[in-house]
Amino acid sequence: MSNPALTFEKDASDALPLHVLGPEGLADWTEGAGPVARAWFEASSFKAGAGQTLVVPGADGRPEQAIVGLGPEDRRAQHRFSVAAARDALPAGAWRIATPLEPGARDEAALGWLLAGYRFDRYAAAPAPQATLVAPDGCDAARIEAIAAGEALTRDLINTPAWEMGPADLAAAATDLAAEFGADSRVIEGPALAEGFPLIQAVGQAAPEDRAPRLIDLNWGETGPRVTLVGKGVCFDTGGLNLKPGASMGLMKKDMGGAAAVLGLARMIMATGLNLRLRVLIPAVENAVSGSAFRPGDILTSRKGLTVEVNNTDAEGRLVLADALALASESETDMIVSMATLTGAARVAVGPDLAPFYTGEDRFAETLAAAGDKVRDPLWRMPFWAPYETMIEPGIADLDNAPKGGFAGSITAALFLRRFVARPETYTHFDIYGWNPNAAPARPKGGAGQGARALFDALSGLS
Fold it and tell me: N or C: which end of the chain has fewer CB within 10 A?
């Protein structure tokens, strides 16, 4: 997969300089600028605000250089990928960063530039030519390109309407990814799924035959730590018989955001050749409404043998993940990570920008948090709060998929999932949103990867 907008410019011969400055650097820049550039700057309203861009012409009136602002130093933590804002403001052509940057700021600028080149144009006219960037000196261009390609895959999968991204389509996308990197893949469906994965079957059985449920199983790598990624692949969620209101159903094409995130992460891992033994498991279903839909009050028996009382058919994500986590635990693994657009409670707690995660391993939590800061993929640790275990125990069955009361919804969902993992100390869970409600530099409105870049950075330290 090669998208020119997601790669660096290879020909630096005609690249124009792009200066990256905060307000404190403007005086030095103007002092060294020629008279035409200085006059242009003085006639402008440029203050080096975060993402503010000024194209500076030469004596012939053509663009000669440009400046992009970082904003005041004491407010930069409020902004990510400020340099990326220049991409849409600059005229098409090659550019190079002319300002020495610290490694972290340099890599952020390089990655942000590529992410800003993403366009979901499957149903629209081809985008206009964009400005391109020469890879800054010192950055690992191939690695950054691989990260951008993985994020683009995640965005594409989420942005595709459910009509063309059902369980079979999601399985095809995973199979294509496996083929691209020489991974093994299989898809379990039909009687084998019904027999071996009863919760996945129950959630998906109301859908028509061409959108029947399935389990995707991808394996890659022969050496290194064993890492299993499990992604929620609910390709559309009506809520089932506990039908969602229309306003809540509008974004449910993104309910496979966990699956999209783990596939994007898998692409990063395989493209960069991390020394890992990777497994990706995706329960792919559509939570539909028909006469065969599972019902509130049903008690289902999971692959692990635990029984689950269904008190809300709209809490289906944890059901399909439960069977996949049980399968993941049946093989030797050093780490299991689940990613899912699981609860509205997580959004109420931290909003759409932060990805809450749960882990019982303090050292890994610290590694993840540091990685999130480093790669500008913000995370927030949440607790596996053991006293809440009783909230997911209904008495009539082993577990309750939707505890009453409305408290701690993200925590109780995480505790529910942990019950299906054989070694809880190896388990990490992400409750992501998978969507940017508003456009921001390098983050267009629409599907979004969350947690994957931080995980990739953390896993790079293991390989």
Answer: N
Instruction: Write out pLDDT tens, residues 40-70.
Output: 999 999 999 999 999 999 999 999 999 999 9
**Do 274 and 169 fall within a single domain?**
yes
User: 91: which DSSP letter?
Assistant: P
Task: Please check whether residues 198 and 267 belong to one and the same domain.
Answer: yes
Q: How far is the C-alpha of 111 from the C-alpha of 143, rounded, in Å?
A: 10
Per the structure block, which two tokens stand in for 394?
């209904």
With pLDDT > 90 as the criterion, what percentage of the chain qualifies? Answer: 94
Q: Residue 419 is part of a domain; what is its CATH number? A: 3.40.630.10
In eight-state DSSP terms, residue 289 is -
Domain count across the chain: 2
**Cα-flanking dihedrals φ and ψ of residue 254, to 5°?**
-85, 5
pTM above 0.90, yes or no: yes
Tell me the residue range of the domain where 387 lies: 145-460
Q: Are 277 and 335 in contact (CB under 8 A)?
A: no
Beta strands in 70-109 (DSSP E): 93-97
In a domain, 135, yes or no: no
Q: Are residues 101 and 125 in the same domain?
A: yes
Residue 213 lies in a domain: yes
Per the annotation, the verdict on 318 as an active-site residue is yes
285 in a structural domain: yes
Active-site hit among 244, 347, 374, 381: 244
Q: Is the pLDDT of residue 2 over 60?
A: no
338: which strand partners? 230, 429
Rounded to whole angstroms, the Cα distance separating 12 from 84 reads: 19
What one-character DSSP code corresponds to residue 85?
Answer: G
244 belongs to the catalytic site? yes
83: domain CATH number is: 3.40.220.10
Sequence-distant (6+) residues with CB within 8 A of 152 are 3, 6, 118, 264
